[in-house]
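Re: How this chain folds, sequence and tokenised backbone to follow

Filed under: protein folding, tokenised backbone structure, sequence and structure records.

Contents: The amino acid chain and a row of whole-number tokens, matched residue for residue.

Body of memo: The sequence and its backbone structure tokens, given next.
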Amino acid sequence: MLMEKAREELVKYGKKLVTTNLTKGTGGNLSVFDRANGTVAITPSGIDFFEISPEDIVILDLDGKVVEGNRVPSSEWEMHLMQYRTRNDIDAVIHAHTTYATVFAVLNWELPPSHYMIAVAGPNVRCAKYATYGTHELAVNATEAMKDRRAVILANHGILSGAQDLLNAFNIIEEIEYCCQIHLWAKAVGEPVILPPEELSLMAEKFKTYGQRKSKQ
């Protein structure tokens, strides 16, 4: 069975999305890219995260052809593959329907740097133009808006993150969801103070050695 470790991690983090209240039901999808072999392990379409087994994970090539697996891959497979085709710093992608980031999504707002933890994803988190789920247009919009960033808000939809592994991609989802929550609560009271670009640059450097989580060997 190809990409056995990746399959196990996808099952683990899919369940974790639900148990940490970062998604509901079957909303969202996850993938891992094996850069050496050019294959992608991705969660199947429409199966509850607690029902997915490693055998249900689908293996694709970068053209979207099924290499191994009997399930239908996530409908968002092209949005994942386009990140791997265009980025050399992303080997894991998570899409989720988190509550607060999705509030930003339905407002079509980008997330500004009101909290320094946004720097795990970039100096801000852009909102990609709306497109129907599972379409080539959505994949293009998400990829364009996530350029030079590690997260993007998908208009009227949810959030997407990418990192070197699932641990860091999951951490980005968690932190950006927190930043969205704090920003919205702050706006309910007053106007959030936005951090200057030089502080975001400093945070990005600090996170290279401190803020970025390391995978356990």
In short: The beta strands are 29-34, 39-42, 58-61, 66-68, 92-96, 127-128, 151-154, 158-163. The chain has a mean pLDDT of 95.
